[in-house]
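Standup notes, protein team

Yesterday: finished cleaning the Rhododendron simsii set.
Today: Purple acid phosphatase structure.
Blockers: none.

Input for Purple acid phosphatase:
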Amino acid sequence: MEHKLLTVLMSVVMIGAATVGAEYVRPKPRKALHFPWSRKPSSEPQQVHISLAGDQHMRVTWISNDKSSPSMVEYGTSTGKYTSIAQGESSSYSYLFYKSGKIHHTVIGPLEHGTVYFYRCGGQGPEFQLKTPPSQFPVTFAVAGDLGQTGWTKSTLDHIDLCEYDVHLLPGDLSYADYMQSQWDTFGELVQPLASAKPWMVTEGNHEKENILMLEDEFVAYNARWKMPFEESGSSSNLYYSFEVAGVHLIMLGSYTDYDEYSDQYSWLKADLLKVDRKRTPWLLVLFHAPWYNSNKAHQGEGDSMMAAMEPLLYAAGVDIALAGHVHAYERSKRVYSGRSDPCGAVHITVGDGGNREGLATKYIIPQPEWSVYREASFGHGELRIVNATHAFWSWHRNDDDEPVRSDQIWITSLVSSGCVADKRSHDSHLRKMLLSP
């Protein structure tokens, strides 16, 4: 009975996805947000956000203007009653004439799964609360890349806030500060209401590079402000790492650091894939910034070299879904590999439509490639609900109607359950042959 009901739901979803949005009229662009200056106590925590930091641990990050403020987090399961204290680390950075505040990173835990915690940063200031992800299915991810700081960004964040999700995934291009370091501060304040309550897991985009020849290195602000669990996953760089949530293994790759077969990232990826246990984490997801499958005229071919180097590894490992940003529009593919449909390939989804100031990429290649299922140049966000070891529900919500409209949706069956990686011994043999080859 349950199987029949699931089949009916999938049929309805597929029909809905194919017919929606034919007469949609897109609103005009919105301007950048204005952030009025407000004086705060120098020790008050600002730009608070959290991220996963290994099994049952969370990293709390914030900035204070008081250089003597401690990197301390008090936390507990009852408001105002902090039964645990954690000490962390702090740093700061200079960029041309800009000097950052004191940036704190403190790991708390071990924490119980699916539990609300109340916490305070630096021994004073407001109380925040977070909820840890569940230990098992179902688990829901909100997905939005290329956010920026415009009216559309605010709309995206408002709609994500209505979603009952566990973790936010951001495949690159966060603040669009573009060398103006104070814009990192305003972005931190903008996302704090959401990012302080649910973990934000991010990877870098081209707008995070901010390098100036002979003057400033790449990713200075990004690495200082948005520390991810790279060390916990055996990576040597904050630009690529992996983590696990419930029964999902997620790999965050760097489109703007070396990725060829001789690179550290390539070697790390091979080692990480070999550690994946599909019995424990039947779902395998990958995020990176520049999409590999893109039928929009914007950024054509920019992911090709990374795809040539790494797609065979991901295919051998049986990656289920690949999420990307960069192109300011939405697109979803069939399961695809080596440029054509393949039932054992990954579903590629581009969600670089969070609300950036550069606007939408409205021109597509005609005719639509065979592997491309749905594409639309609108702002929005995605929601991926992993229901169980075999089925996940993906939906994309166009939000520039000023209300969340579900424009595309589909049930996705895991490769573990489809037969592509069902023979574990054969799969391991094929994977190890590829991953262990020099």
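Follow-up from PR in the comments: Confidence is low (pLDDT under 50) at residues 1-22, 423-427.
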